[in-house]
User: What shape does this take?
Amino acid sequence: MSSDALSNLMHEERRFPPTEEFAADAVAKADLYDDAAKDRLGFWEEQARRLDWDTPWDEALQWDPPYAKWFVGGKLNVAVNCVDRHVDAGNGDRVAFHWQGDPADDKRTITYRDLQKLVNQTANALTELGVKAGDPVAVYMPMIPETVATLLACARIGAPHTVVFAGFSADALASRIQDADARVVVTADGQFRRGEPASLKPNVDEAVDKCPDVRNVLVVRRTGGDVTWNDDRDLWWHDVVDRQSDEHEAQAFDSEHPLFILYTSGTTAKPKGILHTTGGYLTQAAYTHRNVFDLKPDTDVYWCAADIGWVTGHSYIVYGPLANGATSVMYEGVPHPGDKDRWWKLIEEHKVSILYTAPTTIRTYMKWGPEPLQQHDLSSLRVLGSVGEPINPEAWMWYREHVGGGKAPIVDTWWQTETGAIMISPLPGVTATKPGSAMRPLPGIGADVVDDQGKPVPNGGGGYLVLTEPWPAMLRGIWGDDERYKETYWSKFPDMYFAGDGAKKDDDGDLWLLGRVDDVMNVSGHRISTTEVESALVSHLKVAEAAVVGATDPTTGQGIVAFVILRGSAADEGDSTVQELRQHVAKEIGPIARPRQILVVAELPKTRSGKIMRRLLRDVAEHREVGDVTTLADSTVMNLISEGLDKGSAKDED
Ligand code: PRX
Assistant: This one.
């Protein structure tokens, strides 16, 4: 973020307190902060008591930095908490999901009772396939109800799931299956995207060829059509799941039993398997979902428009809402210009009252103009959430005016795959919000902004965001890599969790998130590491060297810009090579990592110790005057790059 933008933010004078009516009826009142401040652990225990435990815990927290155990000795079953207990309470007919496929006439209504049957059948099927408690299961699936059932079935039998976003490549899937050591993969033949079927099974076939330990691939028929089949390994969902009993006796698991592993990009090419466990995670997912979104499960219709492949989908499509007995909309598709009013139609049709989405989507709709919204009655919306990246004040105001009818409170929620659940956010019935600020740590959460020495900055100051107290949904480590866990999060400041984000405290002490301070990019709310894209580029025969930066992008937050040095004659092939390289990255990692722009250069700017100076490349990518070059080993390099660009060796892409 430029320093201009930053100082504008710091002078943001607009305040949006909740209406009296909203505040009076809010789930979370101001005393929540007082309760948590008085007795933090007692407060979390009170939240945990909202779940059904088979065995109560002996101790709220064991903290042996950087390792936490929450609700020690307690036992519970996550699926029972998310499904069965609502049926048992007489809410079996309540809708869990209004599911809408990408094709307009593809709809399903899944009640809690339906979900219970589907989860039980899936749990029985996984058991039949030999999956036992503790065995990781890989999930590579579209946004369909079977995906939710698969996650809950895994939770029910204590098998940690590892969901791989269905937009990731075969290679990305293979490396995650191997790292997690999953022996069973659940997938679909394909999914619908922008009205067209897109296959998934070929990616799984390619991935599983590299994973000899995978015994079975369970395949939902979603799109129909031909699929390549391996009789020894592949099983249709309808052959295996449909014939199972819809009863299943659930066993309770230890509060610290692994619930899932979710891979996320770090600063190296190898993604990190973030491990989450059972009791603390579910407690905080449910607590935040209820209080941040002001959930009234009897009357609200909630829609989180994320994909289950990301942590937002895990915590706020599956675990949080279901633990709270919410009614949700689930949508297979993505916003696209050919169908600009689809979202708004869905909101009108289901009278969605709570919407949770990413700033990049809001900016996309801003670009398309408010007309598609104006054709629909959006008056049911009463709370709007934002997640994944800093929301700029213009997008915030547009969200408020055009989506929220100028009255629905906006909750800008900061959190990460590692935190498992929301950490910093307004409470919609309490906080007078400021456009662009995530405001304060939630009750029960400790966060601060510190300087290089780890000292809290005064109001008005900026620095690194840290979390100062262990929290129930915190990651329990990086799967199979303890050293990396300590090094990444706990070595910069002793006993404080380093989030990797820059932040400012304004004069009132409210927090403004400023994006990553490490080599991680944020493209449309998705984390992608610069090193991961660089290593994909250099794996191409024509590339000698590559450097990647995230450049500010008006829609996606950041766009991926790559600088490459080509080998020998490839340098003369120009445009076609650039296209080939963009495709290559999409194939290696997935389309989300395809560089927006690739610039062919003769040299890269490096320090004397050989470190690439990304700061200077970012200046070029963002069309700024290049900053201080005195630490470069060869100070003429930047001239060479600029000259090369002027000669047109650069290729701008959409
Ligand atoms: O940089 C922050 C940004 O997204 C990162 C976490 O990415 P991921 O683990 O993929 O999880 C995304 C969904 C929770 C953070 O380190 N981020 C997330 N939410 C916000 C945000 N930045 C600013 N404001 C937010 N509300």
Observations:
- The chain has a mean pLDDT of 94.
